[in-house]
Amino acid sequence: MKKTIALFKIMLDSTYGISSFKYKASKNHMEVLKFIGLMLILVVSLSPMLLGYIVYIESSYKGLQSYGAQGAVITLGVVLSSTLILILGLFYVISTFYFTSDMEHLITLPLRPAQILGAKFGVVLVSEYITELFIVLPPIIIYGIGEGAGVLYWIYALIGILIIPVIPLCIISMIAIVVMRVTNIGKKRDLYRTIGSLVVIFALMGIQFYIQNVAERGGIQKISNMLFSESGLINIIASAYPPAAWISKALIQSNGINGLVMLLFFLAASAVFLILFEYLGEKFF
């Protein structure tokens, strides 16, 4: 475990250029201003989409409140986050696991395959947190404030935010390991990266176009029906992916024993997937 953690810290520093940025910033304060400027541009560019999402979550919460089903907004956040990781994460996982420049050096070190994979998994997990926070935080905060949630709710929410990406990331990581084991993709890495980038771009464009199209034809109400009805998308995915329902119920019922039981189910399932991922990585990486 110590080797995995140490390797993770090195990889994280290398991936995000943390030490390099600190060094440059200490020599030239303009680097800090450049970084702040880039962050401001990013915030401004994402603000319209994020504000629209927050407004939709808030209106959905108020609409569902009259039916006593306002907790569905939490399930929406969990389902959306998990689905995006499953759909868009495969290419990023394969790229990080197999196509980084450090692989030639890592395989010469006295490290087990599971230790290398564990560190790389951690780096990908940190990246997924960025996406997850934008999707999961708004419904958690809106529901928590609206319901006057207690301390346990916020503790469970913090645990949930940290663990939600684990299962979908384990699933696509195991798929990546199997795919790379039985195919010859490694010899065509540039083509693979290009295809992966195009898939991500077109997927995001498709999602945006579909939502805009539905909104123009039926407005917010139609989107809500599509998502929250008994046969809607949220219930279908939650039924096929029980962990989404477990963590949602853990938060909604956080003031009772059922909430704790659901949280333990969710944590146990995440641990099982991590064990399976480690086993598969040790055997086939």
What descriptors fit this protein?
mainly alpha; 285 residues; globular
| Sheet with most strands | none
Structural category: mainly alpha
What is the total number of structural domains?
1
Amount of beta strand: under 5%
Tell me roughly what share of residues is in helical segments: over 70%
Mean pLDDT rating: 77
Distance between the termini: 18 Å
In DSSP terms (H or I, runs of 4 or more residues), the helix count works out at 12
Gross morphology: globular
Radius of gyration: 21 Å
Low-confidence stretches: none
Order of helices and strands: HHHHHHHHHHHH
Strand segment tally: 0
Task: Please sum up the structure shown.
This protein has 285 residues and is mostly helical. Helix content is 86%, strand content 0%.
Question: Can you give a write-up of this model?
Answer:
There is one protein chain. The chain has helices spanning 2-16, 18-27, 30-65, 72-98, 103-106, 113-147, 151-163, 166-182, 189-228, 233-240, 242-252, 257-284. It has 285 residues and is an all-alpha fold. It has one domain (46-284). Helix 7 runs antiparallel to helix 11 (242-252) and helix 11 (242-252) runs antiparallel to helix 12 (257-284). The longest helix has 40 residues, at 189-228.
